[in-house]
């Protein structure tokens, strides 16, 4: 999957995968608390994730993306 990262204001922001739409997203955490993971699904499959200071969780999500059967 595609991967992007940046570091701003002392926090890392990373994105993995590609979603055609951002409509089916699930957020865990809070941007205000600077700890956030958002996963995006299409047809019930995890296709992308974005994380703020949640590197381990993002890596686990990326592994889930890779292990799912191809569309």
Radius of gyration: 12 Å
Main structural class: alpha+beta
So how many helices? 1
Strand order of the largest sheet: 1-2-5-4-3
Tell me the span between the first and last alpha carbons. Answer: 14 Å
Low-pLDDT stretches are none
Most strands sheet: 5 strands, antiparallel
Mean pLDDT equals 84
Order of helical and strand elements: EEEEEH
Number of distinct beta strands: 5
Helix fraction bin: 10-25%
- Beta content: over 45%
What does this structure look like?
By secondary structure, this protein is of the alpha+beta class. Helices cover 18% and strands 49% of the residues. It is built from 1 helix and 5 strands, in the order βββββα. The protein has a 5-stranded antiparallel beta sheet, covered by helices on one side. A hairpin with a 2-residue loop joins β4 and β5. The two termini are 14 Å apart. The mean pLDDT is 84.
What's the helix and strand layout?
Blueprint: E1 3-8, E2 11-17, E3 25-30, E4 35-42, E5 45-52, H1 55-67
Structure keywords:
single chain; 71 residues; alpha+beta; five-stranded antiparallel β-sheet; 1 helix; 5 strands; 18% helix; 49% strand; globular
How would you concisely characterize the structure shown here?
It is built from one helix and five strands. It has 71 residues and is of the alpha+beta class.
């Amino acid at each position: 999957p595609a991967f992007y990262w940046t570091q701003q204001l002392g926090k890392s922001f990373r994105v993995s995968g590609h979603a055609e739409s951002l409509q089916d997203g699930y957020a865990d955490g809070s941007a205000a608390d600077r700890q956030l993971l958002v996963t995006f699904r299409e047809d019930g499959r995890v296709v992308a994730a974005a994380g703020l200071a949640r590197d381990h969780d993002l890596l686990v999500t990326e592994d889930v993306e890779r292990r799912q059967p191809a569309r």
